[in-house]
Amino acid sequence: MNPETIEKAFQEKVGRKVRLTSEGLDRYRVFTPFLFDDGDHLCIVLHRRNGSWVLSDEGHTFMHLTYELDEKWLQQGTRNKIITSALAGFGVDDAEGELRLNIPNERFGDALFAFVQALLQVCDVRFLSRERVRSAFWEDFKELLGQTVPENRRTFDFHEPDHDPEGKYKVDCRINHLPRPVLVFAIPNDDKCRDATITLLQFERWSVQHQSLAIFEDQESINRKVLARFSDVCEKQFSSLGANRDRIVRYVTETAGIPGSVI
Length: 263
Prior knowledge:
Blueprint (H helix, E strand, L loop, with lengths): L2 H11 L5 E4 L4 E5 L13 E5 L2 E5 L3 H6 L11 H13 L3 E3 L2 E5 L5 H16 L6 H19 L5 E5 L12 E5 L6 E6 L2 H16 L5 E6 L7 H10 L2 E3 L6 H12 L7
């Protein structure tokens, strides 16, 4: 099939603005009207591989996502489930970060339509619903501490067994085997910030020795009065997880006396 016929098939299925530009023997750049939110075009290349036509993003989609998200967070948890589901739904393969779709029976239009939809759904991982964002933030928090602190040194969803056997005052993660264990809180919103404040005040009333650390999803989104009250009782805070990943690892390992990070 010649490039003019392929381009026409693309246009009939996806839109009149689709264009092909030759980049060598049996290799074409596919331009579509679809963009990333920063204005960059989706990267789509059509070329022959082992005698068959293939659409590929040449690794550009995941690279674009890593401008905002840590690559590890795309490979596990809620984000990975969304990505895997999107790719499977449109028959797209992930070849070590390169997204590919083989074109069966010269169905060029159908293949491009499916490939574009898959790329757009993968990109939407940045715009999760509020509930899913909270889930992703919690998973990112657990992944970071889980890889930084050895298993025998940490307890997730900790509560003080002597003073709080029913678990009314929970701590997201307790770093153990220290004269003053570190109580770590993952804080995505005002409600969690209030709960963490109450929990830390209760530990003070019980005279339980501890250090406190808070990791916010986005500290700027927290109500100023709520944050002010929390700051009175929390010793160390990081305004976000993603931008402070290395600082958090360094602080935790130094404070807990952990000999180097396992990340």
